[in-house]
Specification:
The protein is α+β, with helices and mostly antiparallel strands. The chain is 27% helix and 26% strand. The chain contains 5 helices and 9 strands, in the order βββββαββββαααα. The strands form 2 sheets. Strands 1-5-9-8-7-6 form a 6-stranded antiparallel beta sheet, with helices on one face. It has a 3-stranded mixed beta sheet with strand order 3-2-4, covered by helices on one side. It is globular.
Amino acid sequence: MSHPPRFQVLVPTRVRLLLPASQPSPAAVQHIQWHRSRAAQAAELEGPWMLRVCVRLPVQPGSGVSALLAARWLGALHVRWLNQMGLGSAAPYTGPVLPAWAAFRARGPGDVVVGTRKVCNVAATASGGQVLLVASTLLQPPAWGVLGMALGRPMQDLVELHDSSLAASMLLGRRVDAAQWAASLRTALQLTMLPGEKP
């Protein structure tokens, strides 16, 4: 790596709809902001119920670091971190890529699951000599109804989305301290080895 990665860990303070470049503009959005995300592969509802990480990973030519490898690296980091935070059953998703209309309904490399339910969504895209990574961890149950209303999805889609996702607080049986979790994740990111690095 010629330059260290740049990363940001935050808890979104407002509700915002994130859409991939390929998804049509929402027709029924009211009282909600939305924008296109380069890394997004499916619709995602950003809000104070999640911990969000953005990493810009510089890649040297010939390093062998791809968006796929970087996604798995960030997912593995989240697995270790979630295990330390008390989610001992959190594990990397190892099944086939499953596209879907919503990020937490889809499955792909780097995602973190507890059983069959996703607790952390990881997306990656390579561009201009770097890989952009975005990871979203559900801390509290999200407002899936807002997402469904914005995109005009039927109730059955929201039921399936609820059943295929899981917030940390639901697994722990208590509300989690978002600031404490954010600080812990920043430390984990600062201490981890980057993809392609050797000890």
